[in-house]
Amino acid sequence: MRGVERALLEGEAEIGVHSAKDLPAELTEGLMLAAVPKREDARDAWIGVGSSLDEVPEGAKVGTASLRRRAQLLAFRPDLEVRELHGNVDTRLRKLAEGELDAIVLAVAGLRRLGRADEIAFAIAEDSMTPAAGQGSLVLQIRSEDEGALAAVESLVDGLALRELTAERTVVALLGATCNSPLGVHARVDADSGQMRIDAFVGLPDGSEWLRDTLQGDATEPVLLGAELAKRLVDTGARDLLERAEELAR
After folding, report:
1. What is the DSSP letter of 193?
2. Tens digit of pLDDT for each residue in 113-172?
3. Domains of the chain
4. What would you measure as the largest C-alpha separation in the chain, in angstroms?
5. pTM, whole model, 2 decimals?
6. Which residues contact 136 (CB under 8 A, 6 or more apart)?
7. How far apart are CA 1 and CA 37, in angstroms?
8. Of 154, 198, 204, 220, which sits 20 to 30 A from 246 (CA to CA)?
9. pLDDT tens digits for 51-95?
């Protein structure tokens, strides 16, 4: 259990704030999601040499701790040397500055929230790197049936962001994936048309095999859309890829 969730359950806090992409699909008993504020940029950020993925020098050393990013980088650019990189944002940026790596990949939203957006060389196009489910979104969590806390965060709810996150988390849950799986799921609602588009990527960490799919439909039915996309992914072998990816990552 996370420290924030423990604090909620033990009555030390009334509202918990999480990065949505790090919150498991299965919620802790006794807690509920109360609000999803307006979403930040969901894309991944490239920090380092190059002004686009096509223009990154051949054989560049790229750092990331994410299997999702690794899989998509190598699917798009198999010549890259992707190295495992852990630590907080400052630690990762320092390793880049010290010359250990040619580039690193982080979330645009996280860099913006930390006031480090000027470090970004370019945001990676979503058709080249599908973001993680919930990337760019925050989630406010409360104790179940805490009407006072629910009322306190009601004004922070962004309807479009909530629908997008609901669709994305539905796909993750039905595939049995975790926040560490090489799975990208990104939903976008067009407020004018009322349509939602969901893009998904599933692949092996070495980039040798992958699946992509896209689905569009009524934005008022995020669970149904997420479920339909998950079924299509399963039918084309997504579960097998995820199981094999888990074995390779051990």
Report:
1. T
2. 999 999 999 999 998 999 999 999 999 999 998 999 999 999 999 999 999 999 999 999
3. 3-40+134-249 (3.30.160.40), 44-123 (3.40.190.10)
4. 56
5. 0.94
6. 39, 40, 41, 42, 43, 107, 108, 109
7. 23
8. 198
9. 999 999 999 999 999 999 999 999 999 999 999 999 999 999 999
